[in-house]
Design a protein that fits this description.
High-Potential Iron-Sulfur Protein, Chain A, 26% helix, 10% strand, 109 residues, 3-stranded antiparallel β-sheet, single chain
């Protein structure tokens, strides 16, 4: 018969791996939340809309004043607001001073 030999090292290594798994497995995983800004409440967005905003890394305020939604080819300013508009990429309302990684300058092709 085959005998299984358990060494002290094997028990300690395996035990620490199992303990690490349970500690990390028990930690809550926080999903990234979209930045809603003043024009769109993230709590009112559908799951798909929230996911899309996260995937394009949408922020309600750009760190670069040139690359803002208001200067983007995919943005159309709302008729009743100078701070909010519609974005073709996220298919919804965004802040004019916002930004996402899909930003393209107006007049682009």
């Amino acid at each position: 018969m085959n005998e299984i030999k358990l060494t002290r090292r094997a028990v300690l290594t395996g035990g620490s791996a199992v303990a690490t798994f349970f500690i990390l497995g028990a930690a809550p995983i926080e999903a990234a939340e979209p930045d809603g800004g003043t024009c769109a409440d993230p709590n009112q967005l559908s799951g798909g809309a929230r996911s899309l905003r996260v995937s394009v890394e949408y922020k309600a305020e750009s760190t670069d004043k040139e690359t803002v939604c208001a200067n983007c080819a995919f943005f159309e300013l709302a008729a009743d607001s100078d701070q909010c508009g519609n974005c073709i990429i996220v298919n919804g309302v965004v802040d004019a001073p916002g930004y996402c990684i899909s930003w393209s300058p107006k007049g682009w092709p």
